[in-house]
Write a sequence for this structure.
């Protein structure tokens, strides 16, 4: 398989625009490495590649599931490998840590899900606090609102007696050959705040209203992500809209900090040149 280019980094850092520029120069396909972009109808709140962008450059792992359908890290790896198998220059672009880890380092051997065990943890008043007791390393990486991964961490510990973070640390997989670049910017927090406002002006609230009207429950993983959670609370519970926006900005900033911490844990630093990495992955830049 050809060497892929991976452009990762915190949300709102400018990864997508760089990926588009490189993809147009090399005729590459972009595989979205964003766990929420896979869901149909969730466009504004995920900063998904626009229809116009997708007409200019082929994209994968976008709009492949409805919000009530599962999509796993293994599914993401399969999407990426399907593109690589064609020999097409391939850019993985996004900031979902577990997708990056699954593709670059391999999937961790862990037991399949157990519905009864999962239901027990779903019923806890504070699953994140429970995870912090049995797997503090994983709990530190996850936002309390990331219920799917928090519950999975509790489930794996209950089924194996071993913290999921320890399984990750002991994983013998070697890193897949890839050019990996951490994209970042010093004004990230301001960019995050501005982007949330821009999303609201673009119709973010109406997008959430349509999802609710379509019957997607608030306890679905996508509906509980970042801003979707708070805009749903505004529409269903009367949370003031200014507070929904403030909490969305706050949670997104916290998520960005966790993304940076995850990348540092992989030994990466935000000092790479994406164009030089593209030449190493794909060859001399076409003129």
């Amino acid at each position: 398989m050809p060497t892929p280019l991976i452009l990762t980094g915190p949300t709102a850092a400018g990864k997508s625009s760089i990926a588009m520029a490189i993809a147009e120069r090399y005729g590459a396909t972009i595989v979205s490495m964003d766990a929420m972009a896979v869901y149909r109808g969730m466009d504004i709140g995920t900063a998904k590649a626009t229809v116009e962008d997708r007409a200019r450059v082929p994209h994968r792992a976008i709009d492949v599931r409805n919000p009530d359908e599962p999509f796993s890290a293994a599914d993401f790896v399969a999407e990426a490998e399907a593109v690589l198998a064609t020999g097409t220059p391939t850019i993985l672009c996004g900031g979902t840590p577990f997708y990056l880890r699954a593709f670059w380092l391999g999937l961790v051997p862990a037991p399949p899900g157990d519905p009864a065990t999962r239901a027990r943890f779903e019923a806890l008043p504070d699953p994140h606090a429970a995870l912090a007791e049995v797997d503090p390393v994983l709990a530190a990486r996850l936002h309390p609102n990331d219920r799917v991964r928090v519950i999975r961490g509790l489930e794996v510990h209950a089924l194996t007696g071993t913290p999921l973070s320890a399984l990750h640390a002991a994983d013998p997989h070697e890193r897949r050959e890839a050019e990996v670049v951490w994209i970042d910017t010093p004004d990230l927090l301001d960019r995050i705040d501005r982007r949330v406002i821009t999303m609201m002006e673009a119709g973010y609230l109406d997008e959430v209203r349509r999802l609710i009207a379509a019957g997607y429950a608030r306890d679905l993983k996508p509906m509980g992500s970042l801003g979707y959670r708070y805009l749903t609370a505004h529409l269903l519970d009367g949370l003031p809209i200014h507070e929904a926006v403030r909490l969305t900005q706050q949670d997104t900033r916290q998520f960005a900090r966790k993304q940076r911490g995850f990348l540092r844990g992989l030994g990466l630093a935000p000092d790479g040149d994406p164009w030089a990495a593209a030449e190493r992955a794909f060859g001399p830049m076409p003129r």
Observations:
- Residues 9 and 182 are 5 Å apart (CA to CA).
